[in-house]
Amino acid sequence: MKRCCRFRRRDHRFEADFDGCCGKGGGDPAPNAAEPRVWGGFLSAGSWDPPGVRAEPALPRAALPPAAGSSEGAAAQCGRRGRSSRSSRPSVAGAAAGRGATTPAAAAGMLQVRPGLYLGGAAAAAEPGGLREAGVGAVLTVDAEEPALQAPDLRQLFVPALDEPGTDLLSRLDRCVAFVLQARAEGRGVLVRCHAGVSRSVAVMTAFLMKTEQLSFEKAYENLQTIQPAAKMNEGFEWQLKLYQAMGCEVDTSSAVYKQYRLQKVTEKYPELRNLPQELFAVDPTTVSPGPNDEVLYKCRKCRRSLFRSSSILDHKEGSGPVAFAHKRPAPALPRISGSPAPCTSHFVEPVQWMEPALLGVMDGQLLCPKCNAKLGSFNWYGEQCSCGRWITPAFQIHKNRVDEVKALPALGPPTRRA
User: Fold this and answer.
1) Where is the Tyrosine specific protein phosphatases domain (predicted)?
2) Rounded average pLDDT over 381-409
């Protein structure tokens, strides 16, 4: 007869713990496991004893240290650290109790970023009464669905936006910041909210701090994360806020930064687009009067037809030169000579109106002069590599040896008549 059965008869205290050791119950069916066994409130010092071997006296459970690496041991250590940390510093609840009653803003689920400026999620706008008690008179919602807020004298702005990296939030930042500034100038408390209060609303609030307090993206974001530790905007919003910083915290639609961003957004949706948005194209220089005197006009070298202006050129950082083309050569590339960067042999420009017929319905192709059909360059919505090694996406390139630069002369006054 097995020992466990003898133990079951001798002492009823082992009944529950040995239930299943003989295969008769629902307990642990592995009698030869190497892990320590708990029997009736005691822990065996070794593995299961084979028949005929006298068991060593069992030690009380509290007398043995937790097994190294076990979850039980980790829990015990965490418990000790938690008790020591709780004893060394007051808890959040204790600190709040020491300060007094909960503020109306906290009761409404809002976090105060600055005096009269709050951050929150869907619950923050659930009760108009809570907004009124907190002194909030304006609500900016950045969400997929507009909230059904019915409160007198409550100013609202709804910005439809999904919490996805591909969402265009950059082009709406100026409107959001202006709304908050106007409401605060009128003495209203402002709540900026989204569904969870950790991504879209955080991105808009970060832009507001960047603009009004002249903070970098990193500093403004870190500041909000100290207030809302759960704040975590998606990588697409982070990239857009860095572009916002590069433009001086103001969306400049005429800047090369914004034009390149707008092209990339169109590229993400291009296969599904049937028509390209007209604001994507620069005005054909032949259809308007001459631009500013400091602008350079580029003409076809063969027929002298005006093609684009210098304001349509999208500058890019210099690439790594010949090293970037090593994958295209069977032989090892020549080492790049320091101080002699590879020149760019093409102008990368924004699409111009005369290009539209060539761009529709295709992903890549040639760019021909609209007058003489001379080959000027090429385009590719997926991108092309500049001669300097930099990859440009999307790419609309005009070869420099196919165009001439024409600088406008200063305007001369009307000729004077002689008496």
Assistant:
1) 167-229
2) 91
